[in-house]
Specification:
35% of the residues lie in helices and 21% in strands. The protein is built from 11 helices and 16 strands. Helix 3 crosses helix 4 (72-86). The protein starts with 14 loop residues before the first strand and ends with a helix.
Length: 359
């Protein structure tokens, strides 16, 4: 079944995007299976044996490193649960979790020259389509990479992500709702004129490779965005939520709590039509906190472009305002057909928008 840009409400001021790992794949970044294999192969024999023993004890299955099974989300979950259970005696499991985080960063940073072509074309197309609109394009992502930021800079599009400053930026979530413009003097009185033109408001729900937490004492933390951590003083921790299914407790603290509050206030109000691509809906906390409440009231219309339909997606597909388009099936208005779509490929989706924009 074909799908048009008009049906996706791309030209509407309330249009937004939700991007998962699949939206970064064609740029050169790994999917979950490949990421799992690369991370596990970085471990030494003792570390792998500990993980194998843990997975066998908890799940009764054997790890297959080459096929990335079970994936790093499942493994991280098991490590976190065991570390919590053992307390001070579970330091080796905490060390493995930290190593997974650092290896993920290394793998992402090893992609030195990602292919920006599709992201650049996407933003060029959307800028042409939305020329003259004053509302921003809201983009929500679970990805840690910097594709969106790099592509926006390449095209020359203002991007706001909740951080302000120079080489070292500090968290100011309110900046996502600031109105930018110029102040002139008219008859002796200041006059503010809001800027027009395409801009992006980006919310990275699980953090980024350049975000850091600094402990200030008394349970107070500062949050910074800085690719070179040597510019920061003090004890630092990467502000990246681990690829785990049980992330709900992690998003309760900084910087995620404030960014999630912004996301919650925007979805279903300023952002009413969302296309998700490359996202599996495996994060239960996102479904429960962001999607389900708005789907249940019909305040959000969600278009899901996905390679294969997942169980988590099926569990929320009964809402009338949700439709999905996979390589094998299409589900719209409660009717499923066996005619698939190729729009789950980021390049196909971008080309659809590009054609609509006349590029």
């Amino acid at each position: 079944m074909s799908l048009t840009a008009d049906e996706l409400k791309i030209g509407n001021s309330g249009f937004g995007l939700f991007l998962g790992a699949g939206a970064s794949y064609e740029a050169g970044y790994p999917l979950m299976t490949t990421l799992t294999t690369a991370v596990l192969k970085s471990f030494n024999e003792t570390q792998i044996d500990l993980i194998k023993q843990l997975v066998h004890e908890e799940l009764g299955i054997e790890i297959d490193v080459d096929s990335g099974f079970p994936n790093i989300e499942t493994i991280s979950d098991l490590l976190a649960i065991r570390a919590l259970k053992l307390g001070s005696e579970g330091k080796e499991y905490v060390q493995l979790l930290n190593k997974i985080r650092e290896e993920i960063v290394e793998i992402l940073q090893s992609v030195k020259n990602p292919n920006l072509d599709y992201h650049v074309k996407l933003f060029e197309s959307l800028r042409r389509i939305k020329e003259g609109q004053t509302s921003p394009l809201w983009i929500f992502t679970t990805n840690y990479d910097l594709l969106i930021e790099r592509a926006a800079a390449e095209v020359g599009i203002p991007l706001y992500d909740g951080f302000v400053g120079g080489p070292i930026r500090f968290l100011k979530p309110a900046s996502l709702k600031w109105c930018h413009g110029t102040i002139s003097n008219i008859n002796g009185k200041p006059h503010f004129e809001a800027r027009t033109g395409f801009c992006i408001n980006l919310i990275k729900l699980h953090g980024s490779i350049g975000w850091w937490l600094k402990n200030n004492g008394n349970n107070q933390q500062s949050v910074y965005a800085c690719l070179d951590s040597t510019l920061l003083n003090g004890i630092l921790t990467r502000a990246m939520i681990m690829p785990q299914r049980s992330k709900v407790h992690d998003v309760l603290g900084p910087p995620y709590d404030q960014l999630w509050d912004v996301a919650s206030s925007v979805l279903g109000t300023q952002c009413k039509y969302v296309v998700s691509i490359g996202y599996s809906y495996g994060d239960d906390h996102i479904n429960k906190k962001l999607f389900i409440p708005r789907l249940a009231t019909g305040k959000l219309k969600l278009f899901v472009l996905i390679e294969e339909v997942t169980e988590p997606l099926l569990s929320i597909s009964h809402f009338p305002s949700l439709s999905y388009y996979s390589k094998d099936t299409v589900f719209v208005s409660g009717i499923k057909t066996n005619t698939g779509s190729e729009l789950w490929k980021f390049s196909f989706f971008v080309n659809l928008i590009g054609k609509y924009a006349g590029l």
